[in-house]
Amino acid sequence: MSRSAKKGPYVDPKLLKKISNLKPGDKVVIKTWSRDSEIAPEMVGFRFGVHNGKDFIEVQVKEEMVGHRLGEFSPTKKFVRHGGKMQRELESAKPAAPAGEAKK
Q1: What is the pLDDT of residues 50-103, one digit of tens each?
Q2: Is the CB of residue 36 less than 8 Å from the CB of residue 69?
Q3: Which helix (H) or strand (E) holds 56?
Q4: The sheet that has 29-32: what strands, in order across it?
Q5: How many other CB atoms are found less than 10 A from the CB of residue 74?
Q6: Are 32 and 25 in contact (CB under 8 A)?
Q7: What global pTM score does this model have?
Q8: Which residues make Cβ contacts (< 8 Å) with residue 95, sequence separation at least 6?
Q9: Torsion angles phi and psi, residue 57, rounded to 5
Q10: H or E element: which one contains 100?
Q11: Among 17, 26, 66, 102, which residue carries the largest CB count within 10 Å?
């Protein structure tokens, strides 16, 4: 459910405070657990380490990301693969390329 328009977008005040001490383009990763914070225009150019429940996923904020949430770029679930008989057949049909030929 989206936030009320009269309240405005939610951005964690701690994030804004951390951003004010840095300049865009720095290699510093700002760690945060605030996955629900919206990406504001002031955040463009910064690197955030967004917690996914286990570790921090590094997110480089770009212009197109403004208006989205930080959590959208740090998936919490890891897709392994679908199993079963069909999957094994597909994998066995793929020929494995030698490492030396791939660098041509």
Answers
A1: 999 999 999 999 999 898 999 999 889 988 777 778 877 887 887 665 655 555
A2: yes
A3: strand 56-60
A4: 29-32, 47-51, 56-60
A5: 20
A6: no
A7: 0.69
A8: none
A9: -100, 125
A10: helix 99-102
A11: 66
Q: What domains, with CATH codes, occur in the chain?
A: 9-75 (3.30.860.10)
Can you say how many angstroms the Cα of residue 49 is from the centroid of all Cα atoms in its chain?
8
User: CA 87, 89, 94 angle in degrees (round to 5)?
Assistant: 100
Give the closest residue to 19 by CA, choosing from 51, 41, 52, 50: 41
* Residue keyed to tokens 């690197």: 47
Q: Residue 63 and residue 43: Cα distance in Å, rounded?
A: 9
Give, in order, the Cα–Cα distances in Å from 8 to each of 2, 3, 28, 38, 52. Answer: 10, 7, 28, 10, 25
H helix count then E strand count, the chain: 3, 3
d(CA 62, CA 99): 35
